Structure formats: C-alpha cells, structure tokens
From TrEMBL, chains A, B:
Keyword vocabulary terms for this entry: FAD, Flavoprotein, Oxidoreductase, Transferase
Family designation: Belongs to the FAD-binding oxidoreductase/transferase type 4 family.
InterPro entries xref list: Alkyl-DHAP_Synthase, FAD-bd_oxidored_4_C, FAD-bd_PCMH, FAD-bd_PCMH-like_sf, FAD-bd_PCMH_sub1, FAD-bd_PCMH_sub2, FAD-linked_Oxase-like_C, Oxid_FAD_bind_N
Electron transport among keywords: no
PROSITE patterns in the cross-refs: FAD_PCMH
GO molecular function: alkylglycerone-phosphate synthase activity; FAD binding; oxidoreductase activity
Region (Disordered) location: 559-582
Keyword Nucleotidyltransferase applies: no
Residues annotated as binding FAD: D211, S212, F213, M214, W215, S216, T217, E283, G284, R285, L286, G287, I288, I289
Protein name as it appears in the record: Alkyldihydroxyacetonephosphate synthase
Amino acid sequence: MSQNKSKAPAKYQKWWGWGADGDKPYAVANKPKFPPFAMDKLGVDILAKDLTEPRLADIDVPASILGDELREQLLSTVGADNVRTDDEMRVVHSYGKGVRDLVRVRRGILGRVPDVVVYPGSGDEVQAVMEACLRADAVLIPYGGGSNIVAALEAEPGEQRVVVSVDMGRMNKVLEIDEQAEIALIQAGALGPDMEEQLNAKGWTLGHFPDSFMWSTVGGWIATRSTGSQSDKYGDIADITRGLEMVMPAAEGSEQRTQVLSLHPLPSYSSGPSVREMVLGSEGRLGIITQAWMQVHRIAEAREIQAYFYPNYDAGLKAAELIAHSDAKPMMLRVSDAAETEFSMANGKKSSTKSHYINKAMQKLMTAKGWNLEEICISFVGFEGSPVHVRYAKSVVNKIVRAQGGMNVGKGPGTLFDQKKYDIPYIRDFLLNMGIPADVSETATPWSRTKEIHDETVKAAEQAFAETGHKGFIMCHVSHSYHAGACQYFTFAVADGSEDNMATYDHVKRAVQQSFMEHGGTVSHHHGVGEEHSPWMEQDISPAGVHIQRKLFEGVDPGKNLNPGKIVHDGKPGISSNSADA
Amino acid sequence: MSQNKSKAPAKYQKWWGWGADGDKPYAVANKPKFPPFAMDKLGVDILAKDLTEPRLADIDVPASILGDELREQLLSTVGADNVRTDDEMRVVHSYGKGVRDLVRVRRGILGRVPDVVVYPGSGDEVQAVMEACLRADAVLIPYGGGSNIVAALEAEPGEQRVVVSVDMGRMNKVLEIDEQAEIALIQAGALGPDMEEQLNAKGWTLGHFPDSFMWSTVGGWIATRSTGSQSDKYGDIADITRGLEMVMPAAEGSEQRTQVLSLHPLPSYSSGPSVREMVLGSEGRLGIITQAWMQVHRIAEAREIQAYFYPNYDAGLKAAELIAHSDAKPMMLRVSDAAETEFSMANGKKSSTKSHYINKAMQKLMTAKGWNLEEICISFVGFEGSPVHVRYAKSVVNKIVRAQGGMNVGKGPGTLFDQKKYDIPYIRDFLLNMGIPADVSETATPWSRTKEIHDETVKAAEQAFAETGHKGFIMCHVSHSYHAGACQYFTFAVADGSEDNMATYDHVKRAVQQSFMEHGGTVSHHHGVGEEHSPWMEQDISPAGVHIQRKLFEGVDPGKNLNPGKIVHDGKPGISSNSADA
C-alpha cells in the first residue's frame, strides 16, 4: 500500500545506507593512500567500480496489512500527516543500519516490513497509539534515529499481526533545564545534533557522543544502554539518565491497556531492584520511552585532545590502565592497535610517506628509538575542565605515557580526529559498494583481560577469514575506560562481494562474538543485543540471567506486543540460523 | 525448641541492641554537655534511670515448627554445628536493628521468629539449603550483619510455612584480588571490618564505609543498595559491584528447583535490562547472593578530612552543590544543619563553653563576622589521592567555602569525627533506655530541591511532634553528593517512653516519609525498602514501577518463598496499618 510521497514528519536516513539523502559519499579520490591499503589488506581494487545508487522502484515492497479500524484510530490520534504507509517510509523503518541490514535492503530482501509508521507528537499520543495497538493486538517497534546495528528494529519474520513502527522523531525538544541540579528534561526522539544545539545555545552539553551521534536519539541511547566517546568524564548513558517516562502495558484486567511509568529525577536511590536500570537496555520490550531527565554539564572552560604514539599495543594498553587508575580523569582515552593505526594513516589526505598523523622527522625519531613502524600505535587522550585541571591531568598522563615508552605528538592529530569522528559509516557504505562488507563489534573486560581478548579475537577473526577463503582485515581500539576495565572496539571487513557474502560475514561475526564469550567479554558494550547478539546471552549473563530477563518481559508484556524477539529470543534469531557452519 | 548454647558459627549482635554482647555502652558520664542538651530539646533527664539489661529468659519464644525431614536435610548439608534452633539464635535473627525492632524485642513482642538458623559455608551449601527449602515450601530469609533498619529481615506475621534464616556469616573471605583490574572476589557474608582487614593486609580498600560498617556485610550492602560515607570517591555499592553469584529458583518444570546466577565481572555492558541492577536492592526476594566481584582501590597515598563552618545551612548546601560540580572530587562531603551541629557539639568531652569542635577564639571570630551561633553549621570534606591532587582539591574547596562565607577550621575536628563515626547506634540504644526512641531516615533529591526538602521535612516532623504531644528533635546532614543532587540524612527522636511509643514514633516517621514524597525525594537513599518503606513505593517510582518490580518477583519466585512481603507488599505492611491516624 502506498500514498503520495510528502514531506516526512521527521528527519530520516536514506533507505539503502547511512545518512540523509544527498549526504556526500566517502571521497576516495582525496585519499591517495587508501586504495593501495585496500589492495594490500583485502585484495580489492576500490577504484574499479562505478557507484550506482539503488532505486526503490526496483524493489518489491509487500503490501501493508493495516486494517481500517486501527488506521482510523491512529489517524484520529496523530493526524493524517503523521501516519505513513508509503513504500519509502515503510522500507526506511524496516531495518537499522547494520551491514546485514544494508546488504538485505539493497538486494530487496525486506523481511517483515512494518505496515505503518506513526509519528506521535507527545507522551499522550504515544499512549493513545499504544492503547489502540494493544487493543488491536498489533506489534509496536519504537524507532529513533534508525542507526541500530544489532537487528533491534526489525519485526520477526512471519509476524502475522499488524506491525507498527513508532517513529519518535517529532518529539525532539529539550523541554527544561534545571540549572541548579544540572539535569535537563529531553524528549526521547531528539537526535544528537538537534539536542546538543538546544543545550549548547544555553551553555550546556550532555557530553554523550557515540559514533552514531548524528543519527541516534536520547530514547534510543537509553533503550540500548549507549555509551559516548567522552564517557570517561560524562559516564555511560546509564549514569547520565536520572529519571524518565515510559508508556507501557497496564496490569492484566485493568480498564486501560496502558499506563505510564514515571521515574522522577534522582541522583541515587535504594528503592528495590532498579526500575530505571530495567528500562535502560530494554530495546522496546518493556514500553516506549517518551522523555528523560538527563545529567548535563556546563560546556567546559578548557578542552583539548592530545595525541600519543606507543611502540606497540601492549604499551598503549598498559598506559590506558594506569591512566584509568590515576588522578588524571581524562574525558576520553583511545588507543588504536597497530592495524587501526595503519588504517588511520592510510586515510590521510596528504601524501607524506607514512601518514597525515606523523611527519618524517617523527618517523626518524621513532626509528632511532628502535621502534618497529609496523607496530606503532596511536592514542588520543581528551582533557576537559578548568585550565588548571587540564594542565594537571596532562602532566599526569604525560608521565604515564613516557614510563611506557610512548611519546606525545601534540594537539594536531587530535583536532583532526575530532573533526572526522562521525565519518566511518560513510567509509563502510563505500566499501560495501566495492563488495567489502564491514562492521563493528565491541566488548568490555576487566583490565586483566584486555590484552588476551584483543589478541585472541584478532586470531579468531583471522582464522575465520581463512576458513571462508576470503581476505579479511580486523582492527581495534580501546574506546572507553573505567576503574575496573575497558571497552575494545573491533572493526572488521571481509572481501566477499558475492550473493553469499552474508554467510561469510556471519562466520566472521560469530568467531568474534564467540571469542568475546571465551575471554571474559560481554556480548556488547554499548550497541545492545537485538536479535544479532541474543544467541550469546546465556554465555554472557548465564542461563539464570536470561531467565530473569525473560520473566521480566513476560510479566510486563504477556501478549508479546512490544518488539518481540529482541534480547531474549523465543525462536531462532537470524545469525544463529547459520550456526551449523560455525 | 532450644538446644544447649554453644559457640555460634558466626559473629552476631546481641539480641536486644546494637553491637556484640559486652560492647561498651554510650558513656554519658564523659559527655557533660549532653544531659543539659537532652533536657533542653526533649525534656528528659537522661541521668535519672539506671540501665538494666533485658534478659532473654524473661521472654516467651514461640516453638520452632521445623519438621524432621527438612531438619535432616539441613543437618546433612551444613553439619550439626551450623543448624541452630536455640532461643537466642532464633531471637537474634527475628529482626534487624531499627528502633521498632529494638522496642519490640525488648518487650518480648517477637512476631514470627524463624524456626531455624542455618549457616552455609559455601555457594554449594547455599544452593543445597535453598533446594531443600523450596522442596519443603519453606520461606528463606538471608541474613548478613543484622543491622537492617527497614524491617527486611522479619518473616511475615502469620506465616504458616517453616521460616529459615540463612546466616551468611561463615562465608567471610576475600577469595581473590585481581590487582590489574582492581577488583576482588569477596564472599557475601564478610562483615565490613573483617573484609577491610583482609584487603588492607595487601594494600587495598573497598572504600565502602556505611554507618553500619561494623555490622553489615558485602551481601547485605548489595541486597539493599547500600552507600558508604566515602561514596563521592568510591561510588555507591551499585557502582562498586562489578559481578556476582546468586542462588535462585530454577524455571518452573526444571528437575532442580534452584539455579545459580553468575554475572562475571565487567566494567560496563549493554546486554539488555541490567540483571546486576535487579539483584542490587532485591533484599532477598530474588535469591541469596553468595559472592561478588567488587572494585577495590590501592590505599590512598594521602588522606585528610578538613572541617569548615558556615554561618547557616543555606550557605553549606550551596557550597556542597558547587563542590560537587567542581574539579575537586573529594572522597566525602558532609554538611550538618544547625540542629545537628548543636548535637555534635553537645557530644564533646571537653567543657569549653560551646563545644569540642570550636574554641573561644573561633567563637569570637564568628561573632565578629556577625554570625548567629545558633545557626552555624559544621562541614567535613574528605580528600584522598596523590598529595598533588589533595592539595589541588583543597584549594578548590577552600575557594568555594570562602565564597559562601564559610571558614576552614583545620584537620582536628575531622580526625575526631573519623574516629567516632560508628558510635551513633550506641547513643540510640542509650536514649531508648531513657524512653527516647530515635532513628534515621535518608533521602536523595536533585540539588534544586535539597533546601526545600530539608526545611519541609523539619517542619513536618515538628508538626508531627506537636500532634503527638511529645517533645521531639530532628537534625540532618548532607551525607552523599552526586552531580545531580545529594542525600540528606535525618535523625529524629521523640520523648515518649510509654507502651504506646511506637504509635508516636510511626506518626513522626510517616510525616518524614510523606515529606520525602512530596518534595522530590526517594523512599530511601541507601537503607532500602523492607516492609517499613513499602507503603510509599507507588508514590516514589509510580504504580507502574511497582508493577514492574512485582512482575519480576512473581516471575522469579512464583511460590513466594524468598523473603516475601519486602519492597512490594502483598498485604498491609506494619507502618501503614496505623495510617488511619496519619
């Protein structure tokens, strides 16, 4: 079912890739060192193909099964402009932006496309939409920026009920700032940039900058337990979220089918098992988050990102650990392994021998120190606060870096990094066009296992590449530090452009996830579970932990109307269905 | 049912009051200013009565209904020494140490005394005990240090099933320290001092020092979402706890009735609703925590507690807020209101006109500044870390204090405070002997409501005192600071030694709790819910929040064998049963 294309009620990404329609693609022409890098690592000539955009008209979109009664109820609740059943909006809301999503959508493999996309404009409208959907026994899938990469936005294959995608994009306001408590009440549908713009205008920041920042929302961050790149200072979203409202099913037998959970803002509490922490990470299975009280901070007086080089990753990891246990309290700490360092250097615009990050004088110095240039690792450490704090913190960090044999190379590379930090998904789209599926997996461990899980995961991926018979590449960085450990963020690509390349990709992805499980990691540090990671949940939080989550979901949503199948899977999730070949 | 008194398998507090048998009582003779203070505030001559210890022999202890089959199973699991059915151990395990508990136990009002006290020595034994109890449809109540003050340790009145108190005191070891990740694996039954002793011996500390420290355990802290006095640096127990094991019921239809939840240690994760945060604060309703991976820290190089005076509480609150938002990052920040400042001064040993905290020269200085000595407020700020950090942090704090009109009075009072910080429960016991029930209630709010909730709660308590016709006293301090707000800790006493004094106490307690609800607070910041606070849960986390907790408990423990009635009450908890007079 389709209707005339009209102005969408909210911003949205293009149906076949990252970013808005018309965003500039990755400019390989400006990166002279990248094609040889890709040829070396993946054996692919990335200049060989012309890019042709897929056309929606070429794809067969299944008809909507939305019935008249529910349609009327939705229309009367949110108005005609905010109920969409046209092909484009339905396809946009079919998937997130994982590589599997992109591959499928470009091939016209749409799965269970939502029957309707609804755009509520208030908490009351969300409740009315859910009330109507529960009475009609429809399925509700909340939708924020659409950047999810763990298959949390797609309906279950074969879902017989009407599927309603609830796009929160109209609810994008910072409603209130409590300047004394440094908390702000923000609507769940606010995208990162829109929210920061509203906060910055009054001198505030949330300090939450995940890689998906351009296309993710406050509600999405909460629902997936997101973490931003400056979490070392500002905390994970779980720390930042101090109160919230969520529309959810009422108790069985109530006259109304829905109720509103309201958790007023608190710095801390001892009121039983934390309901706030149950909503965090619930991925739509408990309800639809409508607004939240979030910690905000005055924009820091001083801010800078220093770059450092280490002779190897071991030295960088040890320094990261010591910095995390020191008084320095940086706002960001990133250490790339040798592979990622090489990748970063290959993405420079300039044509210096080695990179845009280090010049020839530095190279000479490194060689003189006896460093193997194939093993060097770049690190970025961000500092924020009063000028005195920044000065002190830098002195603490510099001392630790030197003790691990590293060297400070100043602010230049950090400034560049800061400007480019949201560009990676465009490279991924470009590589996919070249027949190279690439994606990311991240995990956290105690510090005592950071090296082990890094080395073993790289080894497992390399073995998986070999098993598939395709060239592959994996790289990693420390992305978030805590007292007890760190998150390491792996990016991997495999040079298979064939029709079977998702089986190839799955084989590698499974090897990576299994390595996480075997070496003290978690299924995900901040991307969530969705369907993609649900096969590993029992290994991560033990069968008893999954049992507890299952009881929670069954108790709150006995009709399984709320994004069923995510986190705790009742059937067989996508990636495990191929597990026979693992 | 009783048996010969033998050496208890674990440390325990005396049945009728705080601390071990033979602990020195509050030494009023050394506090010349306290009797006039008590006469002034409460109209009671606290030197008038002789202390007589209650005798267990005077109390009628109901017989145990433990049957032979379960007894045999328990004996064969943990051995004869670790199964106790004698009166003393059963009475010790009947209640926590709230003032209501002490009043009841001294009057021989025992309620539903546990039928047996079991002391497992390992996680396997805990599982075997729970397995036997679930098969026998018995009730399990986990027991740590016994210091709970929210009625979380008592069986429901009229409970027809066998009640088993599971005392974790034999499981008191630090099993392992991961020096790289700075986490330690600690058994749940370890009391504060025993645990710190084991950690300190290797140069480590947990940094968790609640007022109950001497008589509370790792498992109890987790089960109640405890917070220690140095949480500004070390975090709440929820932050400190990185992994854990818990014995819990298996899914219905399983061959075994029990299973073990195992959450391996992680710095952070995105694996669905946080199961770790469901166990935190579960007060025995989901299972029995057996051991946990806890963050530890190297004992700080430098440590000091500075004292400050403010002309009034408003100035102290504003300074606390500014310190919390600064770079200073103290380990502790405490500000007493004028009433508590006066109480502290009245508890000094020396006979200087005003107190042991300020001398005459200081008094003159304050008077010269135009301060009203009735309004002055004392504050303690603790600093820890490298000497450079401590120096910097002090300079930041001193600047903020001065800007709010406060003054630094050096390290002396802080050192004294540090030595005496665990003594308050002995004063409470002493006052109770004098016919003055006293207890504490704490709550947290955003900074924007700290002054409001303080002033309104004091007003509500004073009105409640007047309504009861008894003199009363209430005082408060800021005990824990966060980015978004603070905890304020109220202590109140009412001069009613009559047989009806629990109705008087309840009237005041209800007024305090209701004020928390009306002014942005939470039912409890770190004492938990138990039965005592359950009547306010719907006002705190909304009816939908209680619904979620109820579904969680029902799902995990459908037979209601695990500490039923706590947090979410199915019947009518104690304190609300008098609510007609509220």
